[in-house]
Write a structure and sequence with these properties.
The protein is α+β, with helices and mostly antiparallel strands. It contains two helices and seven strands, in the order αβββαββββ. It has a single domain (5-130), classed as STM4215-like, CATH 3.30.2000. It has helices at residues 5-17, 70-84, and strands spanning 25-27, 38-45, 56-67, 92-94, 97-104, 108-112, 118-130.
């Protein structure tokens, strides 16, 4: 495969939210020296295969955000989280992956980091299939 589902989802979220990869949206982690207002998509659990179909995967992601104020941090994290679990993010082809759906949780406040920025998190699980949708030729 040319791109991981993690990267494909993050790239699609950049398009859907208007955020810029490497500036205020990251995959993996947010470098400490980067913008105070930023969100990262972290892959939390390796891709377990479906017991009945080797092409299906369930991916667990964490949406992690921070901001200089409680409101801006929570709103930015919620923007990305809501885009990830939106109905428009279901049944779409993402490069080598077909994303069936993603389900998630509400954004929760974690506290503050060492630079006094407010931190937030939400978790989501995406179900995807390698290649085309089931039944496609």
């Amino acid at each position: 495969m040319s791109i991981s589902l993690h990267e494909a989802i993050t790239q699609r979220l950049a398009t859907d939210t208007g955020l810029t990869l490497g500036t205020d949206l990251f995959w993996g982690h947010i470098p400490p020296e980067e913008a105070d207002l930023a969100v990262a998509i972290l892959e939390r659990v390796p891709m377990p295969r479906d017991g009945y179909n080797n092409n299906f995967r369930k991916h667990r992601f964490q949406v992690f955000g921070r901001g200089p104020s409680f409101k801006t941090g929570k709103d930015r994290t919620a923007l990305v989280n809501d885009a990830l679990i939106a109905k428009t993010f279901r049944g779409i082809q993402l490069t080598d992956w077909y994303l069936y759906f993603a389900v998630g949780e509400e954004v929760m406040h974690l506290g503050k980091d060492e630079r006094d920025r407010f931190e937030f998190t939400a978790n989501a699980t995406a179900t995807a299939r390698v290649g085309a949708p089931y039944g496609a030729t």
